[in-house]
Fold these 2 entries.
Entry 1:
Amino acid sequence: MTRVEEILDQVGSLSPLPGTVLRLIHVINDPQSTVDQIVETIKYDQAVTSEMLRIVNSAFFGLTREIQSLHDAMRCLGTVKVLQLVMAVHTNSLLCKPQKGYGMAPGILWEHSVGVAIASSLIGERIGIANRGLLFTAGLLHDVGKVILNEYVAAEFGEIARRVAELKISFLEAEKQVLGFAHDEVGGQIAEKWQLPEPIVLGIRYHHQPNALDVPDTVVDALHLADCLCLLLGIGLGADGLSYRADEAVMERHGLRESDLEMIGAQVLMEVQRVEQLFGEHPSTGESRELCAT
Amino acid sequence: MVEVIDIADLAVTNEPQATLVTHSLGSCIGITIWDPETHVGGMLHYMLPSSVISPEKGKAKPAMFADTGIPALFRAAYELGAVKKRMVVKVAGGSSLLDDKGTFNIGKRNYIALRKIFWKNGVLIESEDVGGAVSRTLRLNVGTGKVTVKRRDGEVEL
């Protein structure tokens, strides 16, 4: 089997997303969804429901009475917040493992994903995308391709890093040259296999190359800006560092200025730190954060 | 004892066994200061050039911005007996993405902000490792004043 075939095979054998999550993503994607439909989607999943209630009742939210149901939680915190928490709980187990190929200690890819999720919702709000739940989910999953590509990058890291340094190309381009696939393509394939809504598939596939689309896409644009911003601010950086291309046309397209990005950046950092507190983990404390790639 | 400085945070100490470290410096800038006489050391990891964009955040989290964080770092060190004219100052970070023509250039703006503040206050930079598209880890050994920068291509003394 060639390496390209092997990578495709791995995508094919990746376990499916839990049914609850998949249904939830589709419910979020539909702007007509009601609170009842959302509760209906989650309530039979005991693990998710109890984890949600644990988080909502943690000292963090400072609620004065105990929340006993999902309905209650949505009333107190708002539907979007609750949906975001459910998605964050789920992707935590998928994304929290160390990604040695990308020089990421445990928790770092998840931290980056949460950062991009938060940043894309804020950017979406700024540029007028109504469905922030969808953007949050797309942000959480934008780098899912790294989970598969990780071991191949680990094996070829020296060659990829050499090309980045000597040929002045991006980490993405070097991945593609050396492995035959880059993590955005692999991510797009995973998203298709999981039958995620089309805007999320597109977002994951093109978050590094918004200009590769004939018709610009606002979800792709929001993800691209969010990813650039989190890389710049060092929210979940790996050994690939900042070796990615930034597309300034996206900023112009939405009438954004540098000060807008800075404002959003400041807000993103505060929120990421809140979420990390909420989940009782903070990867940046301790030496474990050290880049582990060679 | 290793103390980790988060994004938008700072610390000073005169504990000789202490090592101050900050990870994931992208466009953010890390500054170390060290007084060779009192062995007071400090580190700041700021993320944006100016608190003008959000004065309330500048107040709540001064280490987020160059204009509020740098004075806060020096003041905290003075309280432990450090003296400005003896201070050894080192700087790392300020990276950029590729193809960056200006809009995303937080790293460069962060660095310019620092140079302006240092110039106004007569502070000299002893050594620095800034720019590029890399992520850096900055470390200060408070007992010896030794500062190192780690990038994906290895760790060097600054």
Entry 2:
Amino acid sequence: MKFYFFHLMPWPDLPADFSDKSKHPSAWVTLSNRFYDPEKGHLLYNRYLDELEYAEKLGFDGVCVNEHHQNAYGTMPAPNIMAAALLRRTSRMKIAIVGNGLPLRDHPLRVAEEIAMLDVISSGRIISGFVRGIGDEYYSMGINPTFSQERFREAHDLIIQSWTRPGPFAFDGKHYKVRYVNVWPRPLQKPYPPIWIPGFGSKETVEWCADPSRKYAYLAVFMPDHLVKWFFDAYREAAQGFGYEPSPYQMGHLFPIYVARTDRQAFEEAGEHVLWLYHKGLRHKWEMFFPPGYTSVPSMRRIIGFAHELNWETMDVKELNERGYCLIGSVETVRERLVKYIRELNFGLLLPLLHFGDMPHDRTIKNMELFASEVMPFLKREFKAMEEKWSQAA
Amino acid sequence: MTAHEELVEVRGAHIRVLRAGSGEPLVYLHSFLGEASWLPFFDLLSRSFTVYVPAHPGFSGSEGLERVDTFHDMVFHYADLFDEIGLEKPYIVGLSLGGWLAAEVAVHYSHRVRKLVLIDAMGLHVAGHFIPDMFAANPSETRALCFTNPDSELAHSFVSDAPSPEMLDLMLTARQASARVAWNPYLHDPKLQDRLYRVSAPTLILWGETDRLIPLEHGRLYEQNINGARLSIVKGCGHLPPLERPDETARYVLEFLNS
């Protein structure tokens, strides 16, 4: 098992009347940035970075930074900047960048260059995520969502080629045409940094990740148990269709985890912050969450079929916990449920979101410490066989 | 009246076309809602004309969206479709997105348009006039933008809160195909206004007085930029006069086409 501490860096100070949905239909796109206070932001960014740096001391395999635009849910519009800030203050752990939103950027070669720089500076500690960005961000950036999928695939191809083919060479795509592709620096890891792809709702993405030419790790993000299973099964099935057995490190599970001495204490301490995440931070306008053409019509039909599952605001902490949208409990509870998960779903990357919502610093540190001392080593021992069998692939 | 439905193949894509009536050919270009089912408005026109109602690529059972990257691909598609059906110089009536399309066809192929009717047409940008974001609108907001009476059965029949699977497909595909060509620049082509001088067909601009999506100022701008065009206003009507006021709208259109 590999453990990556995931941070969203939310903006916790929402307007006092935020519970009024008619006034504030979303924490995205239309929530005014006058609610952002840069003086407070200065303290908050540095506090959040301290938490990420501390993960190395606690023995995490790495941390994840991520990319979201113009919202209160996550204030890291430029994840490469966060990675750069962390690199020079850490020496061992990996830094997974779960951006970059390729179709949201004007030029994919900027991503290729930045990731290569980070990889060289850090001596190969970078994991490069590629994402399409969520629906709302197509509104925020004015990018046509109906081209999102094809821009993503083409930008990906250009970046991978720029890292693997000796330059200069010409790239002649539909969206990107470059006569002289010749990226300096080249990434340090060979052939290039590991690629992670967070997914949400699309089976096509799973199959694309599983392709033997890629074998990218697929990350299930904030999904209830049965959907995580559905996607990991789809991944295995796709890999088997390609004629290979996928490594558990090709599958990752990202969701909020809070651990305390007792179940009761855990719920008391984490409850309000989980609700902040699911009732406030993730408050979207449906039409903005799913802009036209961002998802294929068949996938859209399927998503509408399970739309009631995304109706987080009607779920209380207990229900969110039971459905697998979060995991809150004592050391024993958390260990037990994770062991069950990992056995059933056979995945090797766990990306616990150990800070969420408006959780204060001391509580975050307590959660990180307890997870790192009581849960992480336990699971590493429990799944030692996985490590031995697949260490090559990790 | 029963319309004849056929699939016309245009460069390998099947295009759904409804046809009824007799007389000279008239092509109706539908709005962003994809209303390519037979409507009372078409009945009224088909008493004097052979009315063709094609579904644009990607809408209402028509294929071919993968070849559409820009609005101009839609325009070329219509040149191809006219060739395929054998329409040399039809009358063209376009509503909303279809009105924009009609204007573009008349700019690019001015010799192939007998007369032009633009109804609450998208396509222009009026400085200082804000067009609401229809892509972000939920069904209830969409009805409020488009219909004089958003709670009417008529409004719900085109934009439903609880659509049947067929209706849902229609709504999802129409939304996707509209965004493909009209997301950004939003519902217009910045170059269109300057090109409208090329329209040579006699032109009627027809506008719903209280259109909340594409306000009347856009109609006036079309009127100012197309030679000899005149603007008629459908009093107290919203964005979709042929749907909301078929009789009155057809009267305006027929009077103009027959004059």
